[in-house]
Amino acid sequence: MSLGYLALVTFPTIPSYLQLLLLVVPVFTVIGIGVWARRVHWIEGEAETSLIRLVINLCYPCLIFESVAGNQALGATENLVLPPLLGFGVTAVGIYGGRLLAKLIGLHIGTGLRTFALAVGIANYGYLPLPIMEAIWGVESRGVLLVYGVGVEVAIWTVGLLVLSGESLRQGWRKLINPILITLLVAVACNLAGVVPLLPPFVTKTIHVLGACAIPLGLIMTGVNLAQYLHQPRSLFEPRVSVAAMAFRLGVLPLCVLALAKFLPCSVELKRVLVVQAAMPAAVSPIIIARLYGGHPPTAVQIVLGTTALGILVIPLWLRVGFQWVGISGP
User: Fold this and answer.
1) DSSP labels for 19-54?
2) Which domain holds residue 98?
3) Tens digits of per-residue pLDDT, 232-258?
4) CATH of the domain at 179
């Protein structure tokens, strides 16, 4: 099982703000446990690197396969084509919009302009929305979110890298060939071919057990990764960067994404994904990408920590607004 068990209530209709807050807080608590584990030196050095590799290369692919291969909702064409297109489009618009905002607040190349664009443009599309969706709508809801995430990944390694470092499109595409994308393609093929019932029970059980580790361990490692930046509290908040990022990521972009969910001819499953994605803070991955590709990591840290801290209170609010405006509810 994954973090769906953290839901303390069931949602027969539109959940209240308090119910949604109770759903979100335990997820952030697990991230906090990861911070604590790093601070007391339980996870550090080679152990951190090894665990991240384990999550990305084994546990998360197993979660993807289990969520997609037998998911009936993905039998509909609209749930295989439109989600990745929207994932790419929303992320690309966020990155380019973030670059424009960075210029407006006076950032320049070398002082965080490109990193601001990347970090503020990418919403958390994995470890945070997955347990939230599962708790509200069940494990079947994970499949469309993971397909949506393919579009986000494409945007990160093409548009994102072009904005951040000026690398060629060809170099960006090469980085898309990874265990997560390969697993997703195999899982979609298995879904369309209907071969999952033919797999031996020990195979599906093994995949389930490994996949169940992905979200809790991924959240813990998110906290571990953030912990290394918390030793200088004064550097974690820069008014110009932090306030602009929170206003854009948790103010402007949610309205745009909810409008897509409201007015586009999306399936119910995709509308749910868009409502949850609209409420998400910035993803953690831009911190690592900025470090690897010549960006400005402190800017990414300020954006991630600022939007995540505010997100604890704002996520339930946007979910509530999204449920009412788009016209979807609990199971």
Assistant:
1) HHHHHHHHHHHHHHHHHHHHHTTSS-THHHHHHHHH
2) 3-327
3) 777 788 899 999 999 999 999 999 999
4) 1.20.1530.20
